[in-house]
Amino acid sequence: MPKATYMYWQKRFDKENPNQELEEEILEIRKNNKDFGYRRIYGELKKQGLVVNKKRVQRIIQKLGLQVTSFTRKSRKYSSYKGKVEKVAPNRIHRRFETCVPHQKIVTDTSEFKYYEVDKKGKMHIKKLYLDPFMDLYNREIISYSISQRPSAVGIMQALNKAIEITTNCKYRRIFHSDQGWAYQMKAYTHTLKENKIFQSMSRKGNCHDNSVMENFFGIMKQEMYYGEVYYSYEELKRAIESYIKYYNERRIKEKLGWMSPVEYRRTLLAA
User: Fold this and answer.
1) Which of 131, 107, 162, 123 shows the shortest CA–CA distance to 225?
2) pTM for the complete prediction?
């Protein structure tokens, strides 16, 4: 081997890693946020006051083998539509999902999860769990939700009443948007909205894009805590969902929110 080539590689090996401190910071962020890809890690570094190029962060993520490899397998989408049960409300949102007013536009939907239970004979059965969250479009925060073992009007009404209570400080007339599921057509639901002077809005029949914000939330949630995992009891899955919603509200940062979590964004702007 020529001496020049040997000396070149010797210098390369002896050279200190210029990204050592940045790599350690990235490893620390990833340790506490297993689903953070390079964009969110970049956002977290930016929040900490570190000036660094996004592509540099991406290269380091690749070097350290920290790419997120979440499962993307999709299960059949749960549909609560049972035809026209009562009165169907008009679509007042019209896919205008942005708002600068807290608690003015609220969206909701129902999603189905599966878990497994073993009976006394050792036979495994597939069971189902249903989640009914209410989201504030101002900061994409889940303001209330219910979890039940079957599609439940009681659970949805409890989550609705909590969402109404939380949003009473809105200076403008509120809009609660959903699909045309049976629960959102029932008299108890529509009457409660009317009593509180809240406009009801519904997606057009068979058009999931009219409520795409909730569909997107369910997709992200299932990709980060459900697909690829196996839950062996209702309580185990329920705890995992409750833990994820807390994480989503308080720690999962978004670029649209200036690299803040939904709760952090709300508190920052309301304090200004």
Assistant:
1) 131
2) 0.81
